[in-house]
Amino acid sequence: MNNALIIGQYVPSNSFIHRLDPRTKIVIIFFFVIFVFFANSVASYGLLTLFSISSALATKIKLSFIIKGLTPVWILIIFTFILHLIVTKEGEVLFEVFSYPIFSGAVILGAAIALRFFLLILVTSLLTLTTTPIEITDAIEHILQPLNRIKFPVHELALMMSISLRFIPTLMQETEKISKAQASRGVDFKTGPMKDRIQAIVPLLVPLFISAFKRAEELAMAMEARGYQGGDGRTKLRELKIERRDWLTFFGFALVILSLFLTRS
Amino acid sequence: MEISFKNVDYTYQPNTPFEHKAIRNLSFKVASGTFVAIVGHTGSGKSTVIQHLNGLLTPTYGEVSIGDYKLTPEKKIKNIKDLRKRVGVVFQYPEHQLFEETIEKDIAFGPKNFGANEEAIKERIIEVMQSVNLPEQLLTRSPFDLSGGQMRRAAIAGVLAVDPEVLVLDEPTAGLDPRGQRDMMEMFYRLHHSKKLTTFLVTHSMEDALEYADHVIVLDKGTKFMEGKPSEVFLRQKELNEVQLDIPEVIKILFKVKEKLGISLSYKGQSTYDLACELKAALGGGSTNE
Amino acid sequence: MKKVFIAFRNVSFRYGEEYPWALKNISFEIFSDEWIAIIGHNGSGKSTIAKLINGLLLPQEGEIIVDGMPVNEETIWDIRKSVGMVFQNPDNQFVGTTVRDDVAFGLENRGIAREEMIQRINDSLDAVGMTDYILHEPHRLSGGQKQRVAIASILAISPEVIILDEATAMLDPKGRHEIMNTVNEVKNKHHLALVAITHDLNEITQADRVIVMSEGEVWLESNPRDVFSRKEELQQIGLDIPFIAKLADDLSSIGVPIKNQPLNHEELLIELWKYHSKM
């Protein structure tokens, strides 16, 4: 398992952000992703940065943990920045690196795009950090509800998603167990030529598939024994409710967007 | 092979919010040819310990030596494959690792990976099929056509085929019916002696630990709680109960006989029948100190 | 009054034309309020019986009656309302992403209103002592805890019979203990029938009646005491009696009278005490 990357990982807490309705978070992030592209001045970028950082702080997850968790993304961000330095040729020449001129426009553009990229990643990862996958599934089921009218199997899709989520840790454990068992029988997953390494996957994949099928079969039987007959006539325990804090959040976000347009140059 | 742990720590996912110390400051030494039972309730660190025995894990602190191989946090050992050839591990539900089209191929998989030649592999296959008590006719069948018990035997044959010097068994009898359990333990016991193996058995069955092991290590929350001869360790009922472990039935009944009837008999590996005779003699002896 | 809740009449079953018969012409009855243990070696057909009771499998020959209804395609959904089943693998029957969601699953299927659902979830988790874990995900639970959740899920739909299909086979001793305690409590509080399928004879001591299966046939129908007195025969069909019963057997073979076949330590000690005081 990769411990460094936090994208897609949920960190439990009881913060304001954690308690927001997942639909609120999804909708806000959706609009944030669009409006990031409207920022074009120092003030507007500053405003969005302030919004993102304070949201991150409001999750009560250590900022250092989040920043460190985005390490692989940092590499991309820095790469984008450098690429812009080299390619863009606007404004005046600031200085030269190995007789290669660096333009002021390149620094500004590069910084703006790197910052935009960073904000996008930060805010979207806040969703998964503060929302359990099952809440996201619920939210998607609700948001897709209108598609039921055109016979789109929304319930089945949501059930499939939630069962997959439920079994991800189980299958990860299983993968680890089988790969350890095969490593003990002399399989080398980590070194050697590419061809050998690809071959080494077979003794891992075959048992994994067999076990997944067996699980699926047993699960289907257990579901049937527990009275599952499809989505018709089912009630639901999980219910999503838009509360006051959600309205407050929407209002706050609207203010941020309004200010964004006021600070645009 | 002689095996020792020196002040070993192992931490999963260090420096994250999910950090978890599975074993801490664990030290023990096992002489070559010993049958060791590792007991402890779920989460006591048993499976972390055995994963060090063939280098699947390396300690985050301290040192593990298996014969001449040394595992330390500082450097990875180069000849890990050689270590794994000498230390065979039978994981829980080993039948889950079967994958080849025929049993023959599956058994040959390990020896092939460790570079044995065709001829030698053929000989080994015949030998291990006998050891695990499977008829040779099954060799050409798919492992997935077998019954659960047979599948497990085939998987074990695949580990034995490498001809290890150390055999690590992680609850090898889980899920088998009583006869299957007894046959399986008898098989490992026979192999232990005939092949002069050093055997590690992770088990929840105190009865098996008492019956087969020379040495028992009791783990609790990743540390060594006690170790010693099974017939001595299992007398410490109170302490074992504290770490949610039971003692073997035979010792339990002897304690109760002492407590309720005032007759003290000691357990020294006698059969149920011999025990019955001793009980009869003691009860009929006319000692009326009540 | 004793009422027959489950009846098997000359039932035979096989998994397909090319397979041997897994059950051969078996007949028995289970009463409401009864604790019945079905034991047998692996492959003796005992788990097949469980799946026939709630119609997960349908027999090729014979008839099965549950709660006065013959088990067939039309009745299975009604029958599943009164028959709850705990399977062997704790992982493969846990549908929900948390304990609460899992217990809810069966209730949602039956269209129970949300308010009542919450009430029933709380009550049934309380009954199995899992209230503190209500928001836990399955991978943070032990096998024993998952099985307790499975029992809670069944209690929530208030069935008339619970079938434990080797529900302890994959658990450690602690988990096994937890399950047997939970089952005991549940059995005492709610008046239901219990069918415990197992190969561990330590788990049958509290049963009212025991059905011993061998090679797809009912080999013996009796009570635990009688079963424990048949050491050799049981060993022949791949089962084993508990240590206490073995010791009692050896004692009586060398002339110590054991009048009442002991089921536990205390009963054996009483027998020994009787012998001792007569000397």
Folded structure, characterized:
The complex is a heterotrimer of chains A (265), B (290) and C (279). Chain A has 265 residues and is mainly α. Chain A has helices at residues 16-19, 22-35, 42-58, 63-69, 71-87, 104-130, 133-144, 154-184, 194-199, 202-225, 244-263; strands at residues 93-97, 100-103. Chain A has two domains: 16-131 and 242-263, no CATH class; 153-225, no CATH class. In chain A, helix 8 packs across helix 10 (202-225). Chain B folds into two domains: 3-241, Rossmann fold (3-Layer(aba) Sandwich), CATH 3.40.50; 248-285, no CATH class. Chain B is 39% helix and 21% strand. In chain B, the strands form two sheets. Chain B has a six-stranded mixed β-sheet with strand order 6-7-8-3-9-10, sandwiched between helices. In chain B, strand 7 (166-170), helix 6 (178-194) and strand 8 (198-202) form a beta-alpha-beta unit. In chain B, helix 3 crosses helix 4 and helix 4 packs across helix 5 (148-160). The termini of chain B are far apart. Residues 286-290 of chain B have low confidence and may be disordered. Chain C has ten helices and ten strands. By secondary structure, chain C is α/β, with parallel strands linked by helices. In chain C, strand 9 (209-214) and strand 10 (217-222) form a beta hairpin. Chain C has one domain (4-224): P-loop containing nucleotide triphosphate hydrolases (Rossmann fold), CATH 3.40.50. Chains in contact: A-B, A-C, B-C. Chains B and C meet through helix 6, helix 10 and helix 11 of B and helix 6, helix 9 and helix 10 of C.
Q: Supply the number of helical segments of chain A.
A: 11
Count of β-strands of chain C: 10
Instruction: Note the overall shape of chain A.
Output: flat
> What is the correct CATH architecture of chain C?
3-Layer(aba) Sandwich
Oligomer: heterotrimer
Q: How many DSSP H or I helices of chain C? A: 10
**Cα shape of chain C:** globular
Overall strand count of chain A: 2
Low-confidence stretches of chain C: none
Radius of gyration of chain A: 24 Å
Strand content of chain A: under 5%
Chain-averaged pLDDT of chain C: 91
Q: Encode the helix/strand succession of chain A as letters.
A: HHHHHEEHHHHHH
User: Of all protein chain pairs, which has the greatest interface, and how many residues does each chain bring to it?
Assistant: B-C, 37 and 37 residues
DSSP helix fraction of chain A:
55-70%
- Work out the count of structural domains of chain C: 1
Mean of pLDDT of chain A: 87
User: What is the N-to-C order of secondary-structure elements of chain C (H for helix, E for strand)?
Assistant: EEEHEEHEHHHEHEEEHHHH
Residue ranges of chain A: pLDDT <50 for 5 or more in a row? none
What fraction, in percent, of the residue positions of chain C are helical?
25-40%
GO molecular function (chain B): ATP binding
Pfam families (chain B): ABC_tran
Subcellular location (chain B): Cell membrane
Main location (chain B): membrane
